[in-house]
Amino acid sequence: MISANDLSPAELAALLHFHADAGVEWLLEEEAVDRFAEFEAMKAARRPASTQQERPAAGERPSSGERQTSQRPTAAARPAPVSGPQPAIPDGEAVQQARFVAEAARSLAELKTAIEAFNGCNLKHSARSTIFASGDAESGIMVIGSAPSAEDDREGLPFSGKSGQLFDKMLAAIGLDRSSVLLTQVIPWRPPGNRAASAAEIDICRPFIERQIALAEPQAILLLGNFAARFFLGENDTIHGLRGHWKDIVIADRAIPAIASLHPQDLLTAPVNKRLAWNDLLAFQAKLKSLSLLRN
């Protein structure tokens, strides 16, 4: 095992970032926990009662003491109950609950409280933060990303970290900033390890993002990333095929013009695509000016 004392500050920082991106939340706990014993207890608790009793080998007869022990196990011999995760809500029921609490919210503040209290999505149990809309809800301008990153989860805000810094520069290039638009994510909780959200998780989260849009009533939407573009445009093409084209998305019987572009994280990975994103930003800027949402 490599000791932290043998690592340089840069190597230690890289290792910590790696663990954070993999979903590790805490390095130490207040008290030592024997995970092996906990795992064995969980297996014993789930094993049918008939298999918990040890059977003698072929040709052997259990002694009277063994017969008594196997027939009447004492409390000490029984595995202690293990506190596991909360019982999962069936996906269909969770979707219905999400729709109910979303539709019941009459303001973004009420919706935020409802989402934070909602426990029907497994993603919430592994995430540190609930990412909700931030910025100016009266601006008429909405920017929607895909799902929270590890930095978003730590900071509790959408578009954080290095990709958030690039995102700020993208907004500034067309005369906007975080305070002048409404920012949010399709999924309010970070999937562990930055994995893709499952179909069931997407269905559960859909009422929340659609209600955010309905309450904010934006006049134009910028979708960032492959997942966000597919989610709203209903197509399976890649972001390179979906970006740069204005399409109406219908939310609460209201058609809203939306354009998709590459996510800032995509641009950090492949800087050569910045020219494509810049063209999309110019198209978004022109639309905002035509709607009198941005000064000339």
From TrEMBL:
Among SUPFAM superfamilies, the record links this protein to: Uracil-DNA glycosylase-like
Instruction: From the UniProt entry, list the residue stretches annotated as the region Disordered.
Output: 44-90
Q: Does the keyword DNA damage apply?
A: yes
Task: List the Pfam families.
Answer: UDG
**Which SMART domains would you find in this protein's record?**
UDG, UreE_C
Domain (Uracil-DNA glycosylase-like): give its ranges: 132-282
Q: What is its EC number?
A: 3.2.2.27
Task: State the superkingdom.
Answer: Bacteria
What are the alphabetically sorted keywords of the record? 4Fe-4S, DNA damage, DNA repair, Hydrolase, Iron, Iron-sulfur, Metal-binding
Gene3D superfamilies to which the protein is assigned, alphabetical: Uracil-DNA glycosylase-like domain (3.40.470.10)
Q: Which reaction does it catalyse?
A: Hydrolyzes single-stranded DNA or mismatched double-stranded DNA and polynucleotides, releasing free uracil
- Presence of the UniProt keyword Iron-sulfur in the record: yes
InterPro entries (UniProt xref): UDG_Type-4/5, Ura-DNA_glyco_family4, Uracil-DNA_glycosylase-like, Uracil-DNA_glycosylase-like_sf
What family classification does the UniProt entry report for this protein? Belongs to the uracil-DNA glycosylase (UDG) superfamily. Type 4 (UDGa) family.
The name this protein carries in UniProt is Type-4 uracil-DNA glycosylase
Species the sequence originates in = Rhizobium croatiense
